[in-house]
Amino acid sequence: GENVEQHPSTLSVQEGDSAVIKCTYSDSASNYFPWYKQELGKRPQLIIDIRSNVGEKKDQRIAVTLNKTAKHFSLHITETQPEDSAVYFCAASITHNNNDMRFGAGTRLTVKP
Amino acid sequence: GAGVSQTPSNKVTEKGKYVELRCDPISGHTALYWYRQSLGQGPEFLIYFQGTGAADDSGLPNDRFFAVRPEGSVSTLKIQRTERGDSAVYLCASSRDRNTEAFFGQGTRLTVV
Predict the structure, then answer these.
(1) pLDDT tens profile B23-45
(2) Which of B55, B69, B82, B92 could disulfide-pair with B50, CB 3.0 to 4.6 Å?
(3) What is the pLDDT of residue B74?
(4) Chain A nearest C-alpha distance from B103 (Å)
């Protein structure tokens, strides 16, 4: 089955700096890649997703890039703010179906004011 | 309701006991999912319901785990003869259908002592 690896496990940046989180996946048939943000004690929330027919997607300060050949995708957060501090999870899915999603282990991002 | 609701928020039980975890999905969402999130890991898929039926239970780890959704709304995850290794946060999510955004509940933290 699909295996998703995520790096780094923890990331600390200064407010205003950029943060990059990377994920790799094993199944070349995967074609849907969502990212979730989970603040401490709260539920995971979808923040951005990308499908395999595009290489990059941007939404204000966050962007996701996808390299299908290398089977990796990344989350980029620019101009980080303290409220960006959370655990971020990537996921991969073959069918775009939620029951098919396989998650990475998560990255704890800390943005220092 | 406003979001996915899970009860209880915390549950401590003794090894060998039976527990039930409840999930109240967003009204009108036909798809419902259970995930397990161990410390430092991403959510791990357990089971998916479409309406009243379990359309995919491939993630259930063994026959001690069972889930129902008798009326196509509220779901209950049942764990028999609990083991210490069952300790985790159990997340429920729902979506309009299985390839639209899934919304998560805040989870039930289960501790088996």
Answers:
(1) 999 999 999 999 999 988 899 99
(2) B55
(3) 97
(4) 7
